[in-house]
Amino acid sequence: MLEEILSAYTDAQKKELFHQELFPHLRALYNFAYRLTLQEDDARDLVQDTFLKALRFLDSFKKGTNAQAWLFRILKNSFINEYRKKRKEPVKVDYQDVENIYNAEEGTARMGELIRIDEFKNQVGDEISGAVNGLDEDFRTVVVLCDLEGFKYEEIAEVLEIPIGTVRSRLHRARHLLREKLMTYAKEMGYKTNGQ
């Protein structure tokens, strides 16, 4: 079936197109996927899914156009579809883990320890990364695309399929939120702030 879909290109053309136009964006795709999912395994799965879809719909890609924006749009749509699917599923718990905690002599103490670890795990690590990761998905996405990946506003609008005014608005709001979140950190690091 895949061969029928890709009949517009010969095998050599597909391989060349894939390696020259799409594969160079692998690291940027992974970085974007990680910022969306905040999980390494989920990010890898999302990138793999993106490349499979790109290969499947390769005939719709026009050589010489913005391959990175095309791939990012596929990735973003895959993420949204997967997020919607997971949101509808009930939360899954491994029965064996629950049974082990329950049966342990120190089950109650261990449960409390797990809750404390879960409470603070997002607060440990790089302050800036934590601040970006703490943004709402819409704000985080525009910051990652603009400030980390270097996309222009028009490209972000194309990837996210939103008006350019919305891109500007979200980016402005996201930067304002980051500034608020990082003010204390900046003071601690000795940077001068308007509040000093």
Describe the protein in words:
This protein is mostly helical. The termini are far apart. It is built from 11 helices and no strands. α3 (26-37) runs parallel beside α5, α5 packs across α10 (153-160) and α6 (95-103) crosses α7 (107-120). The chain is 72% helix and 0% strand.
- Describe the sheet with the most strands: none
Distance between the termini: 64 Å
Rg of Cα set = 21 Å
Shape: elongated
The tally of strands reads 0
SSE string, helix = H, strand = E? HHHHHHHHHHH
Poorly predicted tracts of residues: 1-6, 105-125
Oligomer: single chain
What value does the average pLDDT take? 77
Beta-sheet strand percentage?
A: under 5%
Structural class: mainly alpha
Short description:
This protein has about 200 residues and is an all-alpha fold.
List keywords for this structure.
196 residues, mainly alpha, elongated, disordered N terminus
Produce the secondary structure layout.
Blueprint: H1 2-5, H2 11-22, H3 26-37, H4 40-56, H5 67-88, H6 95-103, H7 107-120, H8 127-133, H9 137-148, H10 153-160, H11 164-188
